[in-house]
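Attaching the record inline, Q. Sequence:
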Amino acid sequence: MMTEKPVDEESVILVDEHDNVIGTMPKMEAHLAGKLHRAFSVFIFNTNGELLLQRRADDKYHSGGKWTNTCCSHPRLGEETIEAAHRRLNEEMGMECNLEYGFNFTYHAELASGLSENEYDHVFLA
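Structure, as predicted:
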């Protein structure tokens, strides 16, 4: 069951290049301004080493209809990133599993409609 707020109501956690919290900003505003914010990505593999992918909803605010990793999103202020990863994995994929922290990285990508991703991404594996 999806419990995601509309994109104009969600906020993201703004961070510096060391993942220190420096504030919050509405999600759409942060993506329009290209502000660095905390995110996470979940990659679930089966026993054959195959990655579970999902196709983004056609009506997502960016990259609609594209294939992506198992789950990705943004933690809420006061929410541990691992807790957010578990929450969204259940909301998006209806599953629970033992997630292990893999690594983090930052990336910046220009998207359509003047949006950009500028994320400090925490990667979890299972």
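The helical segments are 27-33, 81-93. Confidence is low (pLDDT under 50) at residues 1-7.

More tomorrow.
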